[in-house]
Design brief:
The complex is a heterodimer of chains A (157) and B (188). Chain A is built from seven helices and no strands. With 157 residues, chain A is mainly α. Chain A is elongated and about 55 Å long. Chain B contains nine helices and no strands. The mean pLDDT of chain B is 94. The longest helix of chain B is centred in the middle third of the chain and has 29 residues. The chains are: A mainly alpha (157), B mainly alpha (188). At the A-B interface, helix 3, helix 4 and helix 7 of A face helix 3, helix 4 and helix 8 of B.
Chain lengths: 157, 188
Amino acid sequence: MLLPFFEWCETLWLGQFVVGSLWLFPVIESVHLLALAMLGGSILLVDFRLLGLGLKDRAVAELAREARPWMIAGLVAMVLTGIPLFLSEPIKCYYSTAFWIKMTTLPVALAFAFTVRTRVTRAEPVRNTARRQKLVGALSIALWFTVAAAGRWIGFS
Amino acid sequence: MSLLAFCEWLAATEGSIALHESMYMYPIVESSHVLALTLFVGFAVILDLRLLGLILKQVPVSQVAERLLPWTIGGFVVMNVTGLLLFYAIPIRTYQSIFFRAKVIFLILAGINVWLFHTRIYQRIAEWDHAHITPKAARRAGLASLILWGAIIVAGRMIAYNWFDCDIQPQPAFVNWAAGCVVPPPAP
């Protein structure tokens, strides 16, 4: 059902431009990786804190506030580089299980990051906060790990 | 034994061949190498940004450094173990890759940068621990670290591409020299 959409994607100028160049795909891929490192750092900083690790003498809300602009910048860079990477090989992606795992986990991870996780990192500490924080931190790491691992696996298929 | 001869010997070992030809082990090692980036470089970036006064300005530099250090070291260990395994799987081609060689040089420079930072400006951390704007030497170390780790990531990613491989000739003389390619002289 979605195949016509992917076939249409393949006809787009941007993807063809990437395919036509020897260097463009690797360069965009590199930026995607650089953004991964930054995104990973800004997410793990807060998730580790939620788990009671890392910068544990600081307030969760403080770390979340400080990490947020870097997380958003990392996400924007990931999406901006991810789109041309996808458009350069949409049919391969269509037949890649890893791609579909990534694309189903990604919206869940994003929704989780900007709803539950944001709310929990901003909440005033009350009874049972620690347990909820740990759960949210662990879930966030699990979700983003799946997105990243599946993303890497697209290249192996 | 030359390094090339060592790599040739390594490539003929059973383990190297098994890892190279494995269906899942190689991709798993490769994925671990990439994912560990988020921990290792990710946290190094956080410290670098603190040194540059761009994040966590209210947090003492020593607190950022010391709380994240065990995790950075853990990430570094994973990077090294998986990185060595990746080399072990494909020794000759990797040894003769200009991107791999560039990566090793950048890694050495990054190591020197860390060493200089810890033996010099960080020794006087008590004087500037709370500074929003850190001393010039600390900012320089942070910026150098960001650039070097970035270069290491890019060079590492490029190892996968074969544009400058020794078995793809002709190459510019500089490439063959830098990659250590053994090229037979052109027929007269």
